[in-house]
Each structure stands twice: as structure tokens, then as C-alpha cells.
Design goal:
Layout: H1 2-17, H2 31-40, E1 44-50, E2 57-62, E3 70-73, H3 75-78, E4 86-91, H4 94-115, H5 123-133, E5 140-149, E6 156-161, E7 187-192, E8 200-203, H6 212-221, E9 225-232, E10 241-249, H7 254-264, H8 274-277, H9 289-294, E11 296-297, E12 303-307, E13 316-322, E14 328-335, H10 346-354, E15 358-359, E16 364-365, H11 370-376, E17 384-394, E18 400-411, E19 414-417, H12 418-425, H13 442-465, E20 476-480, E21 486-491, H14 496-519, E22 525-528, H15 534-546, H16 556-564, H17 569-580, E23 587-590, H18 619-631, H19 644-682, E24 694-698, E25 702-707, E26 712-717, E27 723-729, E28 734-739
Parallel strand pairs: 3-5, 11-18, 12-19
Antiparallel strand pairs: 1-2, 1-4, 2-3, 4-5, 6-7, 6-9, 7-8, 9-10, 12-13, 13-14, 14-17, 15-16, 17-18, 20-21, 22-23, 24-25, 25-26, 27-28
Length: about 750
């Protein structure tokens, strides 16, 4: 809020000082004006997302606008907001909307003229083309009137050039710029590698003296990457003013490229500061007597973990007890991170800012210091650990009779990998050299795995019978050599051992969600998954019908049944790729900030869901642990001090943190895939690598293909190909390609 007020105040001061200069942007609304607009419904708030393919196009995702984002066209209407900022938006009037449409149409015609794509397009011809290609005219057009939240210390990666480039004082649409906005010779242009970020004008004095010599040489060749940040963005400057922070290194090096993807994703990777480390307990650490007295002691139970073989942050374990009446007590035991991460401390604030552990191909960027995530919180075998447990009393058929929640003390008897558990499920035994606590045996653990597997199968079948849908994206796994370079790549295979753990973690999350939602109807942190975007689902089912497959998208259950009925794995893969485009991301939310009709989780087809099972790597789970702990107090003592609005802000922070982690993880996977493919290509004749691909879509200027082996889903634009010519058949939605004779690929 203070940052927003500063934006508005500086805008008004700048407007007075620059009356003699041409003003490009309008001053931002004040904090009070934004608050009033949100209350009155004349403004909406959301996160800005700038298109990587068309930088003039941006979208704002707004809670409550389920089927449509607000479309922002052009840098002027974006009003100095950057990709990732939280912004306040006013919807355009019909007159403003028509002006924006006209500007968009003119820009499209200029692009077509540059590319030689034929005649200029009118409004009617653009609408007809949109209809033919399944594109939809944006339903909501808007303009940004204030930046509600942004990171003033955010850094960008890019190259420097000393140029007489001029800033366009209108709309970057190719018109000659006003001389008042020309970049002075004492300024530098910083060109970000992230295409969603505009070029930044850097005055010479904003470059550290220690690297000015390097800047002068590197700017001539573009051989060096730098980091920069925006300092201010005056109303009369089309582009922001900034400063160089540091030199990053030459492009193309693995270390440099990894730094780039972390910076572009805004993932915090700096070491934990001393005030944060001061919050950690001293070593050697042991469970305090007060906790021993207050918790349920389960150290004698046969409890074990199943994780990837290389995992260090073990935050979940399972147990299975056979009762005298023939039923079972099935336990999920989660590291009690909230015992160590207490509210309003430097450690808590840092975990909140990071929000999530980020898993790259070669490393993990932890949310918590290693002392916690790899030692004191990690459920390592043979040591006493604090846990939060959910225990169900189940019948042999998997029907739940009752559920118990409580803080516990556990001692894991064994650390298993998914491969260990899979061997047992397939009829084998655990290896003789497996370390098992002497109070238990490998044979007992193997028997528990078989029973848990049987119960998980029943739980899974019941979930799908009740309408859950499963559309998993592909995950790549890499084998690295001693130098950290990829030597092999394969699709990560989900087996029965993964499903075993997944089913019980889902059950724990659902059980906890019900508990905290009932106890704290206005403050619970839950996770929702809205239904697919209806127009996209309709397009998907129509396309599937054209391909000869009837897909019923009327509900999650019907969708799952339709996809499960497809026998051909390649066809199923194609349809799943197309179906994912219609899906929304699941999001955290505060129950008091949304009507109960919006709580539902579409993919799981459950009315209430949350995240409880991974507090070492997700801040949302720490919040849920605190809520669950408060719910277990006596009725007279139950209270939770976080107000609804604060919980809403925390939910938003957790969503952004999860988005940042996913962006970095995806970029890391693509980086290592590029390195691996480059290695293969250099070893092949003629430098060509041949792989089978599936055509997903044929468009007027591109073909979308999927290479299942490498999880590549890519549009290949015709202008990239060595073509003599191409012909687009709009009625048949097909392309005829003529290759240049010298470039024929056989």
C-alpha cells in the first residue's frame, strides 16, 4: 500500500515538472482511489501477464472472472506496469475499446506487410479469420490505472548497447518518434532476455565504476550479460530508466544460463542472512520435555518414508497397524515444520517470501535453511522427530470409519526409495543391505507396503468412480555426468509406488481441508481448481470430434471416462495435450474471500481441498499446519489471529511463489534438454537429429507438433523452414508445403 501511494505521489510531482514535455502515460490512481474503485466495482485487481509472442498484448487474471482475463493492448494502456506486477484495471469504454481495436488492427497489418503475408486486414476479415482458427475476440478490454504491488528490487538479465535508438513517444507502432524522447549519447540501452520486459534506458552514471571498462567492450559485441533494475519511469518516457547492478557472465555457459532462469523467474537464491539463521535452534538439538509431555508418542510404531532415492528433505512418512477387530489404522505423518517456523520472525518472513522450494535439474533452491529442511525437520530414519499426524481407522475395503488428527513424536524405521517399494509391489523383496531399525524388520515393512498398495488401489478407484479426472503433464528426468552435463534423458515414469503415496497424501489433504474449513469458515487456506474454460473445452471437443473421437467435456467424470476409453497411447497423448490447454491452474484461496460455490476442486472432484503434506517445501502447508493446530484446541480456546484480508494476501503470495518455482523448473528442464539435444546433434551425420513427431494443430502460419520422447510441444512457424512456398487451405485447415530443392530433408 505504501508502495502504491509512492507511485501515485511521484506521478503527480513528475506531471507538474514535465508539463513542457510530451506526456505519454497518465498518472496512477492513489491508494484511496484504488480502494474506492475496488469497492464500487469500477476497478478490478489482478496479476499482469505479458505475452512472450506478442509483447503488445497482455492479460490480467482477476478473481471472479472465471472464463476471461482482461486484455490490455499496447504499452500505453499498460501504463508502466511490468510483467508479474499486481495492478488495478479499469475496463475500457466502447469508444476506448474501438480505438484499441484499431491500433491492434494497424499493428497486425504492418506485421503482415513486413512478412509479405498478403492484403491488409479489415475488422471483418480479422473476425472471419478468428472464427476459422478458433480464436476468440477478447471479451474484456482494459487499461491499467495503478500498480498495487511490485518488487522495486527486481532484477533483469540482458545485454547493453550504446546507441542512438529513439524511444517512440506514441505507441511503438513504427511512427517517427519525437526528438524530445531520443536516447542521449550518454545513455545505454539494456535489452532484457525476457521478451515480456521492455528495453531499459540506463544513464552512464548508473553503471558501477568497477565494470565500466567491461561495459564499454562488451556493449560493442553483445558478448556479456548484465543484471539491471528499473529505478523510475517518468510519464514522458516510453521506456523505464534503470541502473546496472552487476555483470553476470557470457551467454551459453551452464552456470550463467541457470542464473538467468532464476532471475527471470524471480526465484530468491541468495544465501540465508544472519538474522534468519539466528532463528534456528542450536545444535545438538533434542525434543524439549514440554513437547514430549504434550504429544502422542509413536516412536515404537513401524513408520517409514518412500521418496526419490536422492531426496534429503523427507517431509512425509506412512504407517499401517492391524487392529484386533480386523480393521486398520493407517497413518500419514508430516514433519512439524511449524514448530520451528514461528510467526512474525525473520525466518517466517523469509519462508513467506520464498513460498516454495524450487527444484532445478541439478539442484534445489530451498525455502528453508538446510539445518531445517535436511536435518531437524527431515524425517530421517533412526532419529526422533516432531510430526503432525493424520490417522484413519479403515475397513479392509478402505472405508473410513473415523479420523484422528494430532501432534506426534515419531522415529522412522527405514528410508525407502520408490524403486524399493515398486519391487515389493511387483512381488519382490527389499534388499538385504537396507538399513532397518532393529525394532522392526524388512519383512514387516514389505508386508505393510503390500497392504498400503491394496488400500491405495481401492481409494484411487473410488476417486475416479466419484468423478476425478487425471491429466498429467510429462516430466523429464536427466542423467548427469561428473561435470553436471546431461548424458541421457527420459520421461519420468509414474509407477504404482508413486500412486500409493499420492493417494494417501491426497486423502490427508482432503481430511485436513474439511477440518480447518469447518473450524475457520472465514480464515481457512484451501486450494481450488476451477472448471475448464468453457469456450476452450468446446473447441477441444469439436476438434476431437473432427479427429474421430467423441469427448464428453460436460463434467470431470465424463471427461475422464472419454479419455480412458482411447486405446491408442499416441492418440491419447495428443488429446491430453490439447485438453490441458482448456484447463486452469489450481490456486490457493481464503475461504472468507470467496463464495462457497467456488471452493470445488475440479480435477479431484472434491468440495474441499488444501495442501498439508509438504511443509518443508511449501509455505502454504505451514499456514495449514497452524490452522490445524488451532483447530485442535478446546472449543473455548479455539482462535486464529490472522484476519481474512491477511489470509487472502498470503494465499496470493503462495500462488505467486508456486508460479515462480514452476517457471524456473520448466526453464531448467528446457535448458538441460537443449544441452542434451545439442550433444546428440553434434554426434550425428550432417548435424541432423531425426525423431518422430505428432501434428497437434495446423494453423495458417505455423504447425504445432509434439515429440513425446522429449515432452516437446512446439509451434513451428513456416517462416523458419526452408520452403519454396506454402499454401493454406482454410476450409480443410491444411497446409501444402513445397521445400526448396537444395534444402530437401530426406
Amino acid at each position: 500500500q505504501q508502495q502504491q501511494q509512492q507511485h501515485a505521489s511521484s506521478d503527480k510531482q513528475a506531471a507538474r515538472k514535465q508539463q513542457a514535455r510530451r506526456v505519454i502515460y497518465v498518472a496512477h490512481h492513489s491508494q484511496a482511489e484504488v480502494a474506492e474503485g475496488l469497492r464500487a466495482g469500477t476497478l478490478v485487481e489482478g496479476k499482469l501477464r505479458v505475452s512472450q509472442r506478442a509483447r503488445n498484448e497482455a492479460y490480467v487474471t482477476v478473481e471472479g472472472y472465471e472464463d476471461y482475463d482482461v486484455f490490455i493492448y499496447g504499452q500505453v494502456l499498460r501504463n508502466r506496469a511490468l510483467d508479474g506486477d499486481t495492478v488495478a484495471v479499469a475496463l475500457l469504454t466502447e469508444k476506448e475499446r474501438e480505438q484499441a481495436r484499431k491500433a491492434k488492427r494497424e499493428a497486425e497489418n504492418q506485421r503482415r506487410q513486413r512478412n509479405g503475408d498478403g492484403d491488409a486486414m479489415t475488422a471483418d476479415s480479422i473476425n472471419a479469420a478468428n472464427d476459422a482458427h478458433g480464436h476468440v475476440e477478447p471479451a474484456l478490454w482494459g487499461k491499467i490505472v495503478a500498480i498495487v504491488d511490485s518488487n522495486p528490487q527486481r532484477q533483469f538479465v540482458g545485454t547493453l548497447s550504446k546507441s542512438r535508438l529513439m524511444q517512440d513517444a506514441t505507441t511503438n507502432n513504427g511512427k517517427k518518434p519525437n526528438e524530445d524522447t531520443a536516447a542521449p549519447s550518454s545513455h545505454w540501452w539494456f535489452r532484457p532476455t525476457d521478451k515480456a520486459i521492455p528495453m531499459i534506458l540506463v544513464p552512464h552514471e548508473q553503471i558501477p565504476k568497477s565494470i565500466q571498462t567491461l561495459v564499454n567492450s562488451a556493449a560493442m559485441t553483445g558478448s556479456m550479460l548484465f543484471t539491471a533494475k528499473v529505478v523510475r519511469w517518468p510519464l514522458s518516457y516510453m521506456n523505464p530508466l534503470g541502473q546496472i547492478v552487476d555483470v553476470l557472465g557470457p551467454p551459453g555457459h551452464l552456470d550463467t544460463e541457470t542464473k538467468i532462469l532464476l532471475i527471470n523467474a524471480q526465484v530468491r537464491s541468495d544465501p540465508f542472512s544472519q538474522p534468519i539463521l539466528d532463528c534456528l535452534p542450536s545444535l545438538p538439538w533434542s525434543i524439549p520435555d514440554v513437547e514430549l509431555a504434550a504429544r502422542y508418542d509413536m516412536r515404537s510404531f513401524c513408520i517409514f518414508s518412500i521418496d526419490p532415492a536422492t531426496s534429503k528433505d523427507l517431509d512425509d512418512a506412512v504407517s499401517c497397524t492391524r487392529n484386533e477387530n480386523g480393521n486398520y489404522s493407517i497413518g500419514v505423518h508430516i514433519a512439524d515444520v511449524s514448530h520451528f517456523v514461528t510467526p512474525h520472525t525473520a525466518l517466517d518472513e523469509e519462508a513467506q517470501k520464498r513460498s516454495s522450494t524450487t527444484y532445478l535439474v541439478d539442484r534445489a533452491i530451498p525455502m528453508l535453511p538446510p539445518l531445517l529442511c535436511e536435518q531437524l525437520c527431515s524425517l530421517q530414519p533412526g532419529v526422533d522427530r516432531l510430526a503432525f499426524s493424520v490417522i484413519w481407522h479403515m475397513t479392509p475395503e478402505g472405508r473410513i470409519l473415523d479420523t484422528w488428527f494430532g501432534r506426534t513424536i515419531i522415529r522412522s524405521c527405514c528410508q525407502l526409495s520408490y524403486e524399493h517399494a515398486q519391487t515389493v509391489i511387483e512381488g519382490g523383496e527389499l534388499p538385504d543391505n537396507l538399513k532397518v531399525d532393529r525394532a522392526h524388520s524388512a519383512a514387516q515393512i514389505a508386508e505393510d507396503i503390500r497392504l498400503l498398495h491394496k488400500l491405495s488401489q481401492g481409494l484411487r478407484k473410488r476417486r475416479y468412480d466419484d468423478g476425478a479426472v487425471s491429466i498429467h503433464s510429462v516430466k523429464l528426468a536427466f542423467d548427469l555426468d561428473e561435470a553436471g552435463m546431461p548424458v541421457d534423458c527420459h520421461v519420468y515414469e509414474r509407477k504404482a509406488s508413486h500412486i500409493l503415496i499420492e493417494e494417501f497424501m491426497l486423502l490427508a489433504n482432503i481430511s485436513v481441508a474439511k477440518r480447518i474449513a469447518v473450524t475457520f469458515p472465514e480464515q481457512a487456506l484451501l486450494r481450488r481448481h476451477a472448471p475448464p474454460i468453457s469456450r476452450r473445452m468446446d473447441s477441444f471437443t469439436e476438434l476431437s470430434q473432427q479427429l474421430g473421437h467423441h469427448i464428453d467435456g460436460s463434467s470431470s467424470q465424463r471427461l475422464q471416462e472419454s479419455l480412458a476409453a482411447i486405446d491408442d497411447p499416441e492418440v491419447a497423448h495428443v488429446l491430453c495435450c490439447l485438453c490441458i490447454k482448456s484447463m486452469r491452474r489450481a490456486r490457493y484461496f481464503c475461504t472468507g474471500a470467496m463464495d462457497i460455490t467456488g471452493f470445488h476442486h475440479y480435477a479431484l472432484n472434491t468440495p474441499l481441498y488444501t495442501h498439508f503434506t509438504s511443509p518443508i517445501r511449501r509455505y502454504a502447508d505451514i499456514i495449514v499446519h497452524r490452522l490445524l493446530a488451532a483447530s485442535l484446541m478446546t472449543a473455548a480456546a479455539i482462535k486464529y489471529s490472522v484476519p481474512t484480508e491477511k489470509m487472502r494476501q498470503l494465499a496470493r503470495q503462495c500462488n505467486y511463489g508456486k508460479d515462480r518455482a514452476k517457471k524456473a523448473q520448466d526453464a531448467s528442464s528446457m535448458l538441460y534438454l537443449a544441452l542434451y539435444l545439442d550433444r546428440l546433434i553434434t554426434r550425428t551425420a550432417r548435424g541432423l537429429l531425426r525423431r518422430d513427431a505428432i501434428v497437434l494443430e495446423v494453423l495458417d502460419r505455423a504447425v504445432r507438433v509434439s515429440i513425446m520422447e522429449y515432452d516437446i510441444d512446439q509451434r513451428i512457424y513456416l517462416k523458419w523452414l526452408p520452403l519454396h512456398k506454402s499454401t493454406w487451405n482454410e476450409e480443410a485447415q491444411s497446409q501444402m508445403l513445397w521445400w526448396k530443392a537444395d534444402d530437401m530433408i530426406t
